[in-house]
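Pipeline run #58 for the internal structure catalog. This entry was flagged by the ingest filter as a single-chain record with no existing model, so it goes straight to prediction. Upstream metadata was stripped on purpose; only the residue string is passed forward. Reviewer on rotation: M.T. Logging verbosity set to normal.
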Amino acid sequence: MYFTDRGIEELVERRGDEQVSVEWLADRLRAFVDLNPQFETAVERLSSFLARDDADDE
């Protein structure tokens, strides 16, 4: 298990039953980067990865 899996598991446990919009997610990512500018590159890469997910097109 990767260290990041712990955060992902917490997210699923706490908010797994909720539905959120992409707009809400984008706002939360912006707020995170504002508070943690050192993670700007990682958030940018994650955002691009999510935006280009071609699995929805199949």
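catalog note: The longest helix spans residues 22-35.
catalog note: The mean pLDDT is 89.
status: ready for reviewer M.T.
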